[in-house]
Amino acid sequence: MSLVVFSGTVDKLMPVAILTSGAVAMGMEVEIFLTFWGLDAFRKGRPETLTRMSRDYEDLAPAMAALMREKEVPSWYTTLRAAKEIGPVTIHACAMTMDLQGLTKDDLDDIVDDVVGAAEFVDRAREGKITLFI
Amino acid sequence: MASDATTHADIVIDARGSFCPGPLMELVRHIRRASVGQVLEVRSTDAGSRRDIPAWCQKAGHTLVGIEDREGYTAILVRKER
User: pLDDT digit string (tens) for A6-45?
Assistant: First the structure.
């Protein structure tokens, strides 16, 4: 399964982490490509502190966030880390976004495995049966 | 994780309060360390587990021994086959 993670908000990163967990549990390999705001959420120090939610749902987001805290739902970052321990999850950073923002691999959280270009990612995604853009 | 003498499970995984796919992930983690033939009991309050865990058993080649509704939670019993 390949995921193109374009969004950097908690409400979109939750399904990224949960679908990744489900996929590795089912014995699948997961390739994640972080681009634009998705990459921004993986800059060093961000995953642990990110609280931003989609503006589309700004009227509902505070209640959802409160519910997640109250029910002690593990964060998307904790869930993604756990999935990576269970099975093969490779997290790629988009080279173009890195260049644009003047970032190097050292600026990113250590959960990120490498920096790849669009062509290489798409070539790898071709092997999979599922590709999602989140 | 603790053994529970009141059930026939060898390993009891208390995943109550954990959300989808937490109970399944706990089972995957524990079954790796279990021996073939052992029965693992997952205690779950997550509705997704009732469907996810049987689907996973089929895929992973383990046997679903049973699903029991108990007070406030569901117990899903799985025998490690390989």
Answer: 999 999 999 999 999 999 999 999 999 999 999 999 999 9
Here the tokens at position B28 are 């995957």
State which H helix or E strand residue A79 sits in: helix A76-86
Architecture of domain B11-69: 2-Layer Sandwich (3.30)
Q: How far is B19 from chain A (nearest CA, A)?
A: 7
Q: Which residues of A touch B56 (CB under 8 A)?
A: 25-26
Task: Decide if A22 and B21 are in contact by the 8 Å CB cutoff.
Answer: yes
- Tell me how close the Cα of A14 comes to any Cα of chain B, in angstroms: 11
For residue B24, give both structure tokens: 């399944």
Q: Is the pLDDT of residue B4 over 50?
A: no
How many angstroms separate the CA atoms of A71 and A25, rounded?
23
**In the beta sheet, which residues pair with residue A128?**
none
Residues linked to residue A41 through DSSP beta bridges, in sequence order? none
Specify the CATH superfamily of domain A2-133.
DsrEFH-like (3.40.1260.10)
Predicted ipTM beyond 0.90: no
- Length of chain A, in residues: 134
- The Cα–Cα gap between A89 and A1 comes to 10
Locate tokens 């109970």: which residue?
Answer: B23
Residue the block writes with tokens 């009141």: B6
Kindly report, residue by residue over B16-27, the tens digit of the pLDDT: 999 989 999 999
Residues of B in contact with A74 (CB under 8 A): 19, 22
